[in-house]
Amino acid sequence: MIQTTSFSSSWSSLRCCNCCFHHHHHHRWTEKKKARGGRNTPLVRSRAKEDDDDGETTPSREEETRTTAPVVVSLAKLNTSPRRIAIAMTSTTALAFGANFLGVTSLALRANEPLARKLKLDAVYEVSGYRRDRNEEKGYEFLFPNEYLADQTIARRNAMRKAQSLDLPSLRETKGQKNVGEPESAFGPMGTNGEENMSVIVQTSTNKGFDLGQFGDAEEQASWLLENALARPGSGKEAKLFSASETIGENGIKYYQFEYTIKTANWYRRNVAVFAQNKNTGDVYTFVAQCPVERWDGMGEKFRKSANSFRVFTPKPPSF
User: How buried is residue 201: exposed, middle or buried, by Cβ count under 10 Å (0-12/13-18/19+)?
Assistant: First the structure.
């Protein structure tokens, strides 16, 4: 009897609790229905519990929709759309790359330097610290340090010569002609006295049978150049040759490269020079990079890279 009484008492208690549980939830459902205006629409809940263990309430999908709705309304008020924003971002990115904003274009090209060099993109953008000077009308190109600036005097004279080429022959004879040995292009650091620079001189050969190789190999040519042109006896100049080499490039063009110093009572410079001849035109090209000896440690490798990049090709006729 004790066990039966206990079991009946427990069962009665359980039924009582169950009735209270259903009554409690029915009361809550009724209150929420009244809050929704009496609509008999079930609430949409997330899979999470309505009340988390920490007491925070997980928002329903209706509440999330109400939260994101103002964003769409705000875009409409601004007379814009996600598509317009995407187009604007794409345009801004393209402008940043085109203008090399904060060096992003140079950084991207540096990641694929061989391709950038092949496409001649370094004529517009700096790639790994160098830019390209390419002269289509004279037929040469080379790399120069990005910190170097073009010599504006040389550029202005070249522009004047192009303008004079449009004149009648009789008028050209009355105007000044180009000085022999004047560079076609020259570059150097800003704010210096001109001792540090690199330049290219193009000399038209009047002798159609002239061959630069007739002076011998690279070392023989360098010795002849120093003794008879750059540091002649009695000139007050002292020359010293450090190296001489010869390479053959495209179309069988030979490049003679020398490193030497020239010393006088007033200055002491180290130079890298490259000589080449265009077989089609017979023109002789001279690339020279020079700086004071005390600057050589910082510029020597850059000069060698520029000298190694020097190339001669068939010129294109000028276009006006």
Answer: middle
Span 156-168, average pLDDT: 61
Asked whether 260 and 240 are in contact (CB, 8 A), the reply is: yes
pLDDT recorded at residue 118: 72
Question: What's the rounded Cα separation, in Å, for the pair 240 and 234?
Answer: 16
Q: How far is the C-alpha of 189 from the C-alpha of 93, rounded, in Å?
A: 32
Return the percentage of the chain with pLDDT > 70, whole number.
55
Distance CA 137, CA 184 (A): 11
In the three-class reduction of DSSP (H, G, I as helix; E, B as strand; rest coil), residue 170 is classed as helix
- Mean model confidence pLDDT for the chain: 73
Q: Which residues contact 106 (CB under 8 A, 6 or more apart)?
A: 100, 125, 126, 127
Are 278 and 246 contacting, i.e. CB atoms less than 8 angstroms apart? no
Between the CA of residue 223 and those of 227, 264, 271, 296, 299, what are the distances in Å?
6, 18, 14, 22, 24
From residue 292, alpha-carbon distances to 98, 211, 295, 308 in Å are 37, 32, 5, 21
Distance CA 219, CA 242 (A): 10
Residue pair 269/291 in contact (Cβ under 8 Å)? The answer is: yes
The confidence score (pLDDT) of residue 139 equals: 94
Give the DSSP letter of residue 56. P
Would you give the DSSP letter of residue 229?
Answer: I
